[in-house]
Amino acid sequence: MPSAHPASGAARDHFQVLIIGGGTAGITVAARLRRAGLCDIAVLEPADVHWYQPLWTLVGGGRAPLGVTHRPEASVMPRQVHWIREAATAVDPEARTVTTAHRTIGYDHLVMAPGLQLDWDAIPGLGAAVGHGAVSSNYAFEYAPYTWELIRGLRSGTAVFTQPSGPVKCGGAPQKIAYLAADHWRRQGVLDRIRVVLVLPADSMFGVPVWRRALERVAERYGIEVRLNSEMTCVDGAARRLTVADHSTGAEDGFAFDLLHAVPPQRAPGWVERGPLADPASPYGYVEVDKHTLQHPRHRNVFALGDVANLPTSKTGAAVRKQAPVLVANLLAEINGEHREQRRYDGYTSCPLVTARGKVLLAEFDYDQRPAPSIPLLDTTKERRDMWLLKRYGLPALYWRGMLKGLV
């Protein structure tokens, strides 16, 4: 029988559509293109495992096992899509080629979806400290279970939860684990013995006022000390000490901790940041793209979506779900030479803000920071049990059975 993924691209050096990245964005686009009848598609992806990252917060909070967050990459790769199991190292949009460590691949049209990289060493001491002692992070699958181990073992002391400046995947995740931890400690009767510090780089807890006010009430309920306009600048894992800089005053504050959940700074992969498709306006090297059409402004045969795209919206899987149909429609129009009005992405993104075991605020909004509810009849500005069930069970099912198959 023929392989579902022909020859892993081994005998081919040119494709009509080449997709860089086999994560959420890349697989969703590939599936939609196949459903539209396109046959000459390749996905460049070296990983053998596909992760559903939104559940890592619940893994770190003790509410989900790590095993339900991954599947073999082969199981999500659309049938009859060429899977090239290599990593991109450079792109030449003038020559219409992508380079790997072993070959050069030509393309007619390119979709950039390689995701981003976690820059652990951008904060002095963090790379060496994470995963050991009292330091963990839900932003890597290998550390998320350790977060829960630390939370479960803490009975008193100081717990610090940090977020760096700049765009990060799921901007609400740094707060969600703080709330899950505080809820656990409250249930264990030890919250009053734990100082909980939440370090955020922005001047408010959330960009949309209605959810900002709700989160302020959640933090107050748990007695969380919220430090705005601040970020961790260095950490000594062995000594269990960190330094926090207040950007509004220029002051620095060093203190001891007994638990640290740290979110690393994030940026485009190095080859993207150094390459010709990067947006000169992005200090993090993300791909330049029209925020509505998802088309590169200088190369009409290049499109980008997901975490690598320099879009003024949160980097979430929910954003990809709305970006993918727009990109595919505009890509197909470009392939077919159709001169019609392009589909437009309005910046929709969603963040299920976990505030306790069994409680979620579902924040949905667009480029203008206006609420954009998918279910208008439900008040998702209040903590809800049904939104928890959606987060824990509904969205993963939608992801594996619908989104990655190009159905939603």
Overview of the structural elements:
- By secondary structure, the chain is of the alpha/beta class.
- 26% of the residues lie in helices and 24% in strands.
- The protein has 10 helices and 21 strands.
- It has helices at 24-35, 56-60, 73-76, 126-129, 144-153, 173-188, 209-222, 270-273, 317-336, 385-401; strands at residues 14-20, 41-44, 49-51, 70-72, 82-84, 88-92, 97-100, 104-112, 117-118, 135-136, 157-162, 194-199, 225-227, 230-236, 241-246, 252-256, 259-261, 266-267, 302-304, 349-356, 359-365.
- The strands form 6 sheets. Strands 1, 2, 5, 6, 7, 8 and 19 form a 7-stranded mixed beta sheet that branches. Strands 10-17-11-12-13 form a 5-stranded parallel beta sheet, covered by helices on one side. A 3-stranded antiparallel beta sheet has the order 14-15-16, with no helix packed on it.
- A hairpin with a 4-residue loop joins strand 14 and strand 15.
- Helix 1 (24-35) packs across helix 9 (317-336).
- The radius of gyration is 22 Å and the shape is globular.
- The mean pLDDT is 96.
How are the SSEs ordered, and which strands pair?
Layout: E1 14-20, H1 24-35, E2 41-44, E3 49-51, H2 56-60, E4 70-72, H3 73-76, E5 82-84, E6 88-92, E7 97-100, E8 104-112, E9 117-118, H4 126-129, E10 135-136, H5 144-153, E11 157-162, H6 173-188, E12 194-199, H7 209-222, E13 225-227, E14 230-236, E15 241-246, E16 252-256, E17 259-261, E18 266-267, H8 270-273, E19 302-304, H9 317-336, E20 349-356, E21 359-365, H10 385-401
Parallel strand pairs: 1-2, 1-8, 2-5, 8-19, 10-17, 11-12, 11-17, 12-13
Antiparallel strand pairs: 3-4, 6-7, 7-8, 9-18, 14-15, 15-16, 20-21
